[in-house]
Specification:
The structure is a single chain. This protein is mainly beta and 384 residues long. Helix content is 8%, strand content 46%. It contains two helices and 29 strands. The strands form six sheets. The chain has a seven-stranded antiparallel beta sheet, with no helix packed on it. Strands 15, 16, 17, 18 and 19 form a five-stranded antiparallel beta sheet that branches. Strands 20, 21, 22, 23 and 24 form a five-stranded antiparallel beta sheet that branches. Strand 17 and strand 18 form a beta hairpin.
Length: 384
């Protein structure tokens, strides 16, 4: 009886397996595909994350700023610096790779990604001098005409790599001793300025081969000993604005062979100074060009060394009147970016809770929504 029962059980199992195999054979063959992204809009966010906990494998988070959903992530290697091309069709990432991940043979490249698909489309090898630093807007910038890509080098001696985007080759390295951050001119493609430690601006003009035609230094436009500026600058054509540690606005014009500047002015009143209000963060302010408004992350009880403190408030400053016109909750922002054009939105990265706060910036700032738990150690946002 036992033998018959076992035989029956085995027969039942075999029939079941056969039926299952038959059913599986009827299933269609799966193929792995990549989802298609919607076309970029002015609210798409590129969140630059150095990922200090695993710095050899950084991230560029691509987020839909309309619904605050992830669209993708681009690997950026060791302290990779990313920027959109002048026509917004490509993403350039200047980065470092080692053959043994954290050691071994060093290779520096500019990775090139398609901005629509985020796919890697190529790479440009550069000298092993890419600046392994936190993300700031001035560490990699395209020229306004799309011909050149400027990359900050540091060994720690500072220089700027010149990449010809027609030939996709590095063609020159310009020594810029004691100067940092790249400020391309809008009116001249082969021209950029850089901020020097003595408070001046060095302007470099290139010829058609990417070689230096002129290299001229301006008069001092800020005093680095009394009131240094944050290295983050906001551009409107050939004009760049900077904010100082004590809340002064410095305006520089970089269209000519020698940069010029306007007299500085302060966003602070007498009462603000008594309360110790100061700017703080990394991407410390944003500028909406059409409306002439600045959005500055501020904290009170400021002191020497508090310049990285997240924002307690965000101040809206009118450039025409040179006055503060509104104060809004700061959401612990360490990075601010505002979309250009009509219906502007201000995006603030909360450095305490790792979140993105979105404000309607068409009138007085109004918080509309937040995205929690995004990024690890980002310091910069760029909008499409």
């Amino acid at each position: 009886m036992l033998r018959k029962a076992l035989a029956g059980s085995l027969l039942t199992t075999a029939l079941a397996l056969g039926a299952s195999a038959g059913a599986m054979a009827e299933l269609p063959t799966e193929s792995i595909t990549t989802g298609k992204l919607p076309p970029p809009n002015p609210y798409r966010i590129y969140l630059h994350d150095v990922a200090i906990g695993h710095i050899v494998d950084g991230r560029l988070h691509v987020i839909d700023g309309d619904n605050l959903r992830y669209q993708g992530v681009i690997a950026t290697g060791l302290a990779g610096q990313a920027a959109l091309s002048a026509d917004r069709k490509e993403i350039f990432v200047a980065t470092t790779y080692y053959s043994r991940l954290s050691h071994g043979v060093r290779t520096d490249v500019v990775d090139v990604h398609d901005a629509q698909t985020l796919a890697l489309t190529g790479e440009i090898e550069i000298p092993p001098r890419h600046a392994q630093s936190l993300h700031y807007k001035g560490t990699i910038r395209p020229s306004a005409d799309g011909r050149w890509l400027f990359v900050q080098y540091a060994t720690p001696a500072t220089s700027v790599g010149i990449i010809d985007l027609k030939t996709r080759k590095a063609v020159n390295e310009v020594a810029t001793p004691g100067c940092w951050a790249i400020l391309p001119a809008a009116s001249v493609g082969g021209r950029f300025s850089t901020v020097c430690g003595d408070g001046t601006l060095l302007t470099v003009s290139l010829d058609e081969a990417g070689q230096v035609r002129t290299q001229k230094r301006s008069a001092r436009f800020f005093d680095p000993d009394k009131d240094p500026i944050f290295i983050h600058g906001e551009q409107d054509g050939d004009t760049y604005r900077f904010v100082s540690f004590h809340g002064e606005i410095h305006t520089a014009h970089v269209g000519g062979e020698v940069a010029s500047y306007d007299a500085p002015w302060s966003v602070l009143g007498a009462a603000d100074r008594k309360q110790g209000w100061r700017p703080g963060g990394y991407q410390v302010f944003a500028q909406h060009n059409a409306s002439g408004r600045l959005y500055v992350g501020m904290h009170d009880k400021g002191k020497e060394g508090s310049h990285k403190t997240p924002a307690k408030e965000i101040w809206t400053v009118d450039l025409a009147s040179k006055k503060r016109i509104a104060r809004s909750p700061g959401n612990d922002a360490i990075a601010l970016a505002v979309s250009q054009g009509e219906r502007p939105r201000l995006f603030a990265y909360d450095g305490v809770k790792a979140a993105i706060a979105v404000f309607d910036a068409s009138r007085k700032l109004t918080l509309s929504k937040r995205m929690e738990g995004v990024g690890e150690t980002p310091t910069q946002m760029e909008l499409h």
